């Protein structure tokens, strides 16, 4: 049995211009100890799929699925209280922009302690010691001194590490990383990716990596799902995807990589679409 299994997931938003279908029958599953990458251009529904799984979409969204199970637990039927016991503890998510995800009014130490208090019942000295331990594990220098820092007093890379610390604080079984290296410089990107992979390997948790960077996919993933306009185009193990892509859209993505350039200009997705590929 998969750690997480989603079948025929559909998401539709009510907008001023009428219904908008963001996802149209997406399937995916991830096992413990596996790294699944979900790739595609902006607007392909990658983040929406994860937010729907987490139960974090607004009331304007209509979510349906034939199956949405985590370790056999039906996520579709959970009450708000039951969902809070799972989300943040067994399933955690690292969001795209750490500065926007961290509360600017509270210190880093307080926000991390709240997670431990809510899900593990840790308070006082025990909570503080655990926070220092977690910040150390994600590479925050002088972690004890950082407990009193506010998010705006930390760099983008440090805030991203704090978000990772918050996500792994309760030793989740599944971690979702939504564009975890967005807006970070190349050196910090490499450090964050290495950190996520190490944490995943050390704990044996499942990891879903949402990205549009095929280089990240090649370095980190075991299996890949390619999405386009709310639909799944292709699913394969990472080696097969790069060596023998089946879907025209996947071929378009790979052909657009600078290292695959063969002429004066890179091909675009529209070049493949115009040829009738998808």
Automatic annotation (TrEMBL):
The keyword Membrane applies. Residues 6-254 form the ABC transporter domain. Keywords: ATP-binding, Cell membrane, Membrane, Nucleotide-binding, Transport. GO terms for cellular component: plasma membrane. It is found in: Cell inner membrane. Its main location: membrane. The keyword tRNA-binding does not apply. It holds the Pfam family ABC_tran. InterPro entries: AAA+_ATPase, ABC_Ni/Peptide_Import, ABC_transporter-like_ATP-bd, ABC_transporter-like_CS, Oligopep_ABC_C, P-loop_NTPase. It is a peripheral membrane protein. GO terms for biological process: peptide transport; transmembrane transport. One of its GO terms (molecular function) is ATP hydrolysis activity. Belongs to the ABC transporter superfamily. This is Stage 0 sporulation protein KD. It comes from Roseibium aggregatum. The gene is oppD_7.
């Amino acid at each position: 049995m998969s750690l997480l299994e989603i079948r025929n997931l559909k998401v539709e938003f009510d907008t001023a211009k009428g219904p908008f279908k963001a996802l149209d029958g997406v399937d995916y599953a991830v096992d413990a100890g596996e790294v699944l990458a979900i790739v595609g251009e902006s607007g392909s529904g990658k983040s929406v799929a994860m937010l729907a799984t987490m139960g974090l979409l607004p009331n304007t969204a209509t979510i349906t699925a034939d199956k949405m199970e985590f370790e056999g637990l039906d996520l579709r039927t959970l009450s708000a209280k039951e969902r809070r016991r799972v989300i943040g503890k067994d399933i955690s998510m690292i969001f795209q922009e750490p500065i926007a995800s961290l509360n600017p009014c509270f210190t880093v130490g307080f926000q991390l302690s709240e997670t431990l208090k809510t899900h593990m019942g840790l308070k006082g000295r025990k909570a503080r010691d655990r926070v220092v331990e977690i910040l150390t594990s994600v590479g925050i220098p002088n972690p004890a001194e950082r407990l009193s820092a506010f998010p705006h007093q930390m760099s983008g890379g440090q805030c991203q590490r704090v978000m990772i610390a918050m996500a792994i604080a309760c030793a989740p079984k599944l971690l979702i990383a939504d564009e975890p290296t967005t807006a970070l410089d190349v050196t910090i990107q490499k450090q964050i990716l290495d950190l996520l992979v190490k944490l995943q390997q050390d704990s044996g948790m499942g990891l879903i990596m949402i990205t549009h960077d095929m280089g990240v996919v090649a370095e980190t993933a075991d299996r890949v799902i390619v999405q386009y306009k709310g639909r799944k185009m292709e699913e394969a193990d990472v080696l097969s995807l790069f060596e023998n892509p089946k879907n025209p859209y996947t071929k378009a993505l790979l052909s657009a990589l600078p290292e695959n350039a063969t002429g004066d200009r890179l091909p675009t997705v529209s070049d493949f679409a115009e040829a009738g590929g998808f």
